[in-house]
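step: validate -> pass
step: tokenize input -> pass
step: predict -> running
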Amino acid sequence: MSELRTYADAWVTATASLQQLVASLSPADFERPTDCPGWSVLDVLAHLAALERELATGEQPANVQPIEGRGPAAWWTEAGVTERRGRQPAEVLAEYREMVARRAADLAERLPDDPGGKPERTPGAVAWDNRTLLRNRVLDTWVHEQDIRRATDHPGGLTGAPAEIVEGIFSAAWPFVLAKRAAAPAGTRIGVVLDGRRSDYVVSADGRGRQLDPAEADVPDDPEGIDDADAVISLNREALTILGAGRRTPDDLPDTALLSLTGDLDLAGRVLAGLNVTP
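step: predict -> pass
step: emit ->
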């Protein structure tokens, strides 16, 4: 299966799961605040409906207004949400379903064959290639499903292809975060234990972060042990998602999002603070 087909299929899976979740919510659930500042559950659904409408039809949000302290992408995003305020949840869900169905049918018939090629449309006309667009549709859809699940106390959906793709996106950021955002010096090494699976990262002499080959890493028998690492960060997929998407701080994770730190706590804290990599 091609890379783009993998992303397209995972997006279809994510949209189906989100629709099933939203259809099960009560009227009060749609009014609940989410971890997206200023957005209710219905606002999150409105954002997704607006974005899929643009990708399916080319129709962009009307009346885009500048927002102090935020860039044009945020203006565009908020406009799509604002113009749907006052609509009933069933109406917004129906719009989302219709646009997703149109997009899915189009991708089934005309899936691009060049990952690096230019898409016909991107959200807000950002300069993405086909790979980035389709991958980020999985990311956006699945992460927002998790936003809704946390807000309405409907846990789940943390396994399957969309979850694995998002995990890969966030996990790929560890070397950059360690070397650049945490400003760790050459030779610094951290271990990351994700759901019991450990990977190690080090800052090379050129100041760049890289993942160590498993044979090179020589990790201790206890995955959470220090050994040659300066710090070890242990977490589950839920915690990685919340932190990678910039939804909460490590101190404000829900009880189900497990996180523990060993070794140089200052270093681990700087790494976690820089993990927000949502595009």
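step: describe -> The first strand starts at residue 189 and ends at 194.
step: cleanup -> pass
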